[in-house]
Amino acid sequence: MKLFKSSHNYFPTHKSSPIIDTPFGNILMELHVGDYNFANTNTKPECLRLSKGGTLLSYCHNKFIAELVICEPAYNIPNHMAVDKVYAGVWRIKPLINNLKCIFETKLTPKYTNGLVSGPNSGEGLDAITFEYEEIRMTLGTEDGLTLINRSKKKDLMANQFSSFNHEFPDGIIEYIDGYTGLSVSLDELDKNEISQIHFVVAWNNTIDENDVSTWFTVDMSGDEILFKEGLK
Length: 233
Description:
This protein has helices at about 145-155, 215-220, 225-230; strands spanning about 10, 20, 25-35, 35, 45-50, 55-60, 65-70, 85-95, 100-110, 115-120, 125-135, 135-145, 175, 180-190, 195-205. By secondary structure, the chain is mainly beta.
């Protein structure tokens, strides 16, 4: 554990991967740095089991250090709403060189070939995709571009590249990929030793109410909210 600090106990483990299993299929958390995709290479991360059941994967490279936390965060939604499950993936990256470029992607490998519907479902502070299949609904979300710009101005674990970014054009920071099966966040020209954090949250439920927005409300979380249950800073 190099980029996070923990107030709880944690233990080495070999049973860890950058994949979240959902009723719709696997969601893969990917990190691309140059020509490398560290979720799909033979690079073996250091793996830790966190105190509340989450995991931490630590990747060390001569150009950067990256860590991924996958956990089930505590969440707070209105009483009339309900979800079956919530998972989150939180990336941190620390460049060991200047001008590092990286791309964080999370995308679904669907298990259904027919009947799956997906589309954008963004709102204030949130870029998201909602998936529907029969009576199952799932939302995958991340902070929107304007939120990342504001985090940069506050020096809240976000690249300085956004601090002078024109507020009129924040929508291009987060991209939808593969026909609304995933989300992508690019960070360019990161400075040496500058730690940045990106997260993704996924939630699902069974509902026959086409107006149910429980999963959407649930994924609208901050990094601090996600990490709180595991005692991580």
